[in-house]
Amino acid sequence: MSVPEPSPSRPASPQRPPAPSRPGQATTTLWRPTGPVELELVRESKWRAWPPRLLEQPIFYPVLDEDYAVRIARDWNVRHDGAGFVTRFEVDTEFLRRYPVQQAGGRTILELWVPAGELDEFNAHIVGTIEVVHEFR
Question: What is the pLDDT of residue 136?
Answer without folding.
Answer: 98
